[in-house]
Task: inverse folding
């Protein structure tokens, strides 16, 4: 059952992370990552038996939200512990768990995630990166785009496809590709978005991988893939909610202090009401995010899939509105580097676009939830 009120334990974690984020706001992302990992925040969702905190996506999303609310969102939390850590913890071999989970938890290693392709877009069934057997090894060939943090990651969890020997159809599978693997190259994508985590295009040219690079069962790839995508959507919601809260906080502070004609501008309903609406939207999005996280941690992958998509949609919309209203509240100051809000105008759109567009989420809800026919 989903609880609507956070437990005392979760409230304490939220308070601790918020305090940590405020006192470490001047660190770069890598230093912040290591400091957070030292306190157990980065690996809070990973199994205790492999160096993690023994929590779930509920706790990890809480951490990311509070870091974002303090102006320090760590994009790679969506990727390394949430997607890659979850997939390895649930489906990896014992050797893969021993090698990767403690290192992901303590911050000493990072893992990127490669699924998007130039011609596939949001359609994971059109992925053309293929893996074929060569003796005991695998040969992986294909291209990926918009892969975050490959330059700082020790390996990339790559989604490919293998041929089913019984049907001849291609089925998804996941491989751990080391950053220095022969035939594995990367090219930075020139983004207008100014973020520490850079985006890359990857080329895999007959990358030879040992049998143990395959994560889990060759025949369970689709299950493994979606086990990582639900946490990705939940964590993207946390990323967006944190960013929206940060923008809203700056706007509220400004509206309380900025005085025109002897009255703080926050006293005017034209300023106050839109900020109140932004707060309401963020709180509603957080409730759906918490529901999705609880369902996922309870093992309800189907229920979590629906809620995670809804949470990601709601949070993306709420974040964009909060950022826009924050900038408008500050007027010209909202576009200055001093107040740090203008950069969020572009960043906020990420939650609308990635990892899946809001239109594809509407497709998902209309088909899966409402039972309407597909147009494709």
Result:
């Amino acid at each position: 059952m989903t609880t609507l009120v956070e437990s005392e334990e979760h409230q304490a974690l939220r308070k601790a992370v918020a305090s940590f984020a405020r006192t470490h706001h001047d660190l770069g992302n890598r230093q912040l990552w290591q400091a957070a990992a030292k306190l157990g925040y980065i690996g809070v969702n990973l199994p205790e038996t492999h160096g993690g905190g023994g929590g779930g996506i509920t706790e990890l999303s809480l951490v990311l939200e509070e870091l974002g609310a303090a102006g320090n969102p760590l994009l790679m939390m969506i990727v390394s512990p949430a997607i890659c850590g979850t997939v390895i913890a649930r489906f990896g071999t014992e050797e893969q768990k021993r090698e990767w989970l403690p290192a992901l938890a303590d911050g000493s290693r990072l893992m990127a995630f490669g699924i998007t392709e130039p011609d596939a877009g949001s359609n994971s069934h059109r992925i053309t990166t293929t893996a074929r057997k060569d003796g005991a090894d695998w040969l992986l060939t294909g291209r990926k785009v918009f892969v975050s943090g490959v330059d700082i990651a020790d390996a990339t969890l790559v989604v490919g496809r293998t041929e089913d020997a019984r049907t001849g159809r291609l089925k998804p599978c996941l491989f751990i590709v080391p950053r220095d693997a022969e035939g594995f190259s990367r090219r930075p994508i020139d983004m207008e978005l100014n973020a520490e985590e850079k985006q890359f295009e990857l080329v895999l040219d007959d990358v030879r991988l040992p049998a143990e690079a395959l994560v889990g069962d060759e025949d369970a790839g689709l299950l493994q893939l979606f086990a990582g995508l639900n946490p990705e959507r939940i964590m993207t919601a946390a990323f967006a909610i944190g960013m929206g809260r940060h923008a809203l906080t700056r706007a509220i502070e400004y509206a309380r202090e900025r005085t025109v004609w002897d009255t703080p501008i926050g006293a005017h309903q034209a300023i106050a009401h839109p900020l109140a609406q932004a707060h309401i939207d963020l709180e509603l999005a957080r409730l759906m995010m918490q529901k999705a996280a609880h369902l996922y941690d309870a093992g309800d992958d189907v229920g979590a899939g629906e809620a995670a998509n809804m949470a990601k949609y709601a949070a993306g919309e709420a974040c964009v509105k909060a950022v826009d209203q924050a900038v408008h509240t500050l007027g010209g100051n909202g576009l200055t580097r001093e107040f740090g809000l203008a950069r969020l105008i572009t960043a906020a759109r990420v939650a609308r676009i990635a990892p899946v567009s809001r239109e594809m989420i509407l497709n998902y809800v209309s088909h899966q939830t409402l039972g309407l026919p597909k147009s494709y």
The first helix runs from residue 8 to 23. Strands lie at 111-114, 130-134, 137-148, 155-163, 170-178, 184-188, 199-209, 259-260, 263-264. DSSP finds ten helices and nine strands in the chain.
